[in-house]
Amino acid sequence: MLLAIVIGLIAVALVFDFINGFHDAANSIATVVSTRVLAPLYAVFWAAFFNFIAAFFGSLSVANTMGKGIIHFDALKSQGVETVLSVIFASLLGAIVWNLLTWWWGLPSSSSHALAGGMIGATLPALGPGGLVPSGIGKIVAFIVLSPVIGMVLGTFNMLVVAWIFRKASGAKVDRWFRRLQLVSAGIFSFSHGTNDAQKVMGIISVVLFGTIWKDRPFGVPFWVVILCHASIALGTFFGGWRIVRTMGHSLTKLQPVHGFCAETGGGVTILALAHLGIPVSTTHTITGAIVGVGATRGTRAVRWGVAGRIIWAWVLTIPASATVAFLAYEALHALRVVAAIH
After folding, report:
1. Which residue range forms the structural domain that includes residue 335?
2. Inter-axis angle of helices 2-34 and 283-296, to 10 degrees?
3. Which of 94, 105, 151, 200 has the fewest Cβ atoms nearer than 10 Å?
4. Contacts by residues 134-139 (CB-CB < 8 Å, ≥ 24 positions apart)
5. Number of domains, the chain
6. In this entry, which stretches build a coiled coil (predicted)?
7. What is the pTM assigned to this prediction?
8. How does pLDDT run across 299-321, given as a tens digit for each residue?
């Protein structure tokens, strides 16, 4: 019975991973689609391919942070199998509900922060504030601000450097070069997306495994979990999230291939560097910051700040909203367990 429940919960985690890819497809392909370098179908295939191959080259630093850096894993495990399962299910439910809502609204919110918020909200009623890891949560909250700022700075820097290098080239020549180079930058960003985002679900699945059926083994991330998570996020990316593509690729600022290259390269380098340090950041925040930075090099009027404001509000609300859903979900599960015990 326990094995069946664990398998079912892993399936729910993989559903979240699929939705993460579906939701965040815009991060990887919005610029390459809006600049018309690739048709949408080819763009999602390109992004999904790099999402998947990241499984064979990325580290597991973010997975370990998600598994043991937000909640005290040993304290959770000590509460018993039922509590572990309830906390993880409630965490995933909170993240999934928020992801689907923001996808429906066409807002590029963070799947990473939705999952972190879900874990916080589900852990509070189960373990209390002492069950949380303040330093890990502090890093995540800090990089809500820092990751888009770093992306914006790198996007702006890339754009200024490229503009100087190609200052004497004709517009047609620049466009021709960067239509090719944007394929490389889209690949870099999609690789970083897979490296960063797939690891978060690896951490969750590892908590389920090593908190229940493998509770006597040391915590780790099995390779089959790595492959499953990358396959799920790649599949989600392939099916795409077109509502958010429109917001990212058209509503924020008008993009050309050179702009897409600078934004994707800046965002991808930021994410890869932070993932190596084990900091789970938002690919959404980072690429949005990079796009804004690139657009701002043409003047502040080139960026639609009203759209950017709506996006920022979604960022601010993500952790509290997903935490609230997860908190309520855990309390509902706990009430059902109490009723079942009475009867």
Report:
1. 2-342
2. 10
3. 105
4. 135/69, 136/65, 136/69, 136/70, 137/70, 139/69, 139/279
5. 1
6. none
7. 0.84
8. 666 556 555 666 677 677 888 99
